[in-house]
Design a protein that fits this description.
Length: about 600
Amino acid sequence: MTKRSLKSAGVTVVVILISMVFLYFGTVGLWDVGVSDRLNQRESVTNKNIYIIGIDDKTLEEYGPVNTWSRDIPAKLVEILSADEAAKPAVIGFDVIYSETVDEEADRHFADACREAGNVVTAMSFSFREQPERDEDGKVVYNPYHVDYVIDPYGDLRESTQTGYANTLVDADGYVRQAMAYLDYEGERAYSLSSLIYKEYQESLGEEAVFPDTYGRNNRYYFSYSGKPGGYSVVSMADVLDGTVDSRIFQDAIVLVGAYAVGMQDAYAPAIAHNSQMYGVEIHANIIEALLEGRTQLAVSPVLYALLAGILCGIFFACARKLNILPATAVLAAALILDVVFAKVMYGRGSLVPVLLLPVCLVIIYLERMIQGYLAEVLRRRRVVDVFKQYVAPQVVDKISKDKDFELVLGGENRHIAVLFVDIRGFTTMSESLKPEEVVEILNEYLSLTTKSIFDNGGTLDKFVGDATMAVFNAPFDLDDYIFRAVCTAWDMKAGADAIAEKFEKRFGKSVAFGIGVNCGNAVVGNIGCDFRMDYTAIGDTVNTASRLESNAKKGQILISREVYEAVKDRIAVTPIGEIPLKGKSNGVFVYQLDDVRRKTAE
C-alpha cells in the first residue's frame, strides 16, 4: 500500500470513528432506537390472563372526577373482585396513587377491603433529582436518580397492601421503551409497580420471580411491547361496579386498575406505535407480560460493538478498494441485509444492537471509496487528455476523454495504419543565413500548417523531429477512410506550403517547400517508454518505409507507396515513379507521385 493509500485509509478510519461516536452518543442515536422500534416491536399479545379495568369516560360520567370520589368506590371494586374466594384474581394492581386521607371511614373501608383480599398492590411514586454523591472509591459522581421525596399511599392503605413505584421512564425522544425493576431505598429493595405485580403473580403460581439483567443506578432494562394501544382486554370500571361484567372472568388473572380517559392525563408515547398514545396502565400491562415471557433486552456493550463494527468496517474498506462499483454495491447491500437480520436475531435473544450505526459507517466507506474512485478517474482522464491533446486532433481528444475503458499504460497493439512523414526541404541551408528569431518564425509557420492539416483530417500528430513531422491515421482509435485521409493531409500540406513559400520569399528572399512520404500497413502502436516518461507512437517496417519515402521526395513532391495507391486510386491522380531502392530494405519499393486529389468522402 502506498503512502497516499495509507493516508487515505487513515482519513477514512478517522471519519468512521467520529461517525460512530456521534451516532452512538449523539442525538442521531435516537434515530437508531426509533428504527429498532419499527423493526422489532411487534404486536403479539399471548398472555390472555391480564385484564385492565379502566377508569374510562363512562365511569367518570357515572361517578364524577376521580379526585371527588369517596374511597368507598375502590373499596367496593376490591370487594366485588374478591367476593368469591375461588374465583378472585391472582393480583389486583391499582395504577392510582391514594396519597391523602379524604374521609376517615371511607379510607379505612378501602384499606380493610384490601387487607381482607390479600392480593392488592397499590402505587407510590419517587421524585428524583440529580445530586452529587461519593461512590465506593470516594470519587464524586452525579446520581440523576437520587430520591428527593416519596409520594406514598395514606397510612392504613400502605399497611394493608404491597406498594410499588409507578414512575414511567420516558426516553429523550419522548417514547417509552425502558422500565425500572427496583431501587435500593433506605436499606430496602423497593420494586416498581410492574415488577411487584409480576412478583406477586409468580408467587401465586408457586413460582419464583426472575428479574432480567439491568443497568444503571435505577436498574433499567428494555422491554418488548405485546400490544398496541387497546391491545389488552379492557372493561369499564362502571360495568364491574354495577354488575354488568361478571367478576368471575378475572379468576386467577392479573387485574390492573387505572386511568383510561384522555382527561386524566396519564398517557405516553409507546415505542410499538409511534405517533400514538398509550395509557399508563396499558404500559404496565406490557411490562408485566414482557417479564412473564422473558422478552426484555439490554443494550450491547458500546466498546465491544465498536470493536466488532470497526473490524467489519476495515474488512469492507479493504474489499471496496479492490472491487468495482457493482460488486462493491452488492457487498454493501448484502452487509446491510445481514445487519438487519443480525439486529433482529440479537433482539430476540435479549440484546439490543444498533441498527443504523454499522450501515451508516459502511455507507460512509462506500461513498468515500466511490468519490475517491471518481476523482481518481477524473484525474486519470485529465492526464490522458493532457498527454494526447499535444498530438491528437481535438475530436480525438474528446473521444478519448469519453472512453471509460481507455488506459494510458505502457505497451502497444498491432494495427493497420497510414503513416505520413513531412520535412522542409532546404531548411538547414536557409537557417544558416537568417537570424535565429527568423528561423523560429519560419519553422513555427510550417509546423502550424502541418499540425492543422493533420488535425483537420482526423490524424494523430506523432512527433516533431526538428523541421520534420510524423503523423499516423487510424490510431489510437478506428478512423474511417484513414488512408485517403492521410493522402488528403499530404495534399493540404503541399497547398498550404505554396502560400507560405511565397510569403517568406517576399520577406527574406528565401524559398522552402515540403517533401512528403505516405505509406500504409501494419505497425505496433502504443505508449513506448517507461512509467515516468512515455510517448504515443508507431513503430515497425510500415513507419520506416514512410520515412524513406519522405527522404526520397524532392522539393514539393509527395510520394506514396503501391499499398496507398491501390487503396485510393479511384480518387487520386498520380505519376508512376517506378521501383526505387530504400535504405534498409533489400528489395525496392514501387512508388507514385501524387498529382491531384478528388475529395468526395474524406470529410
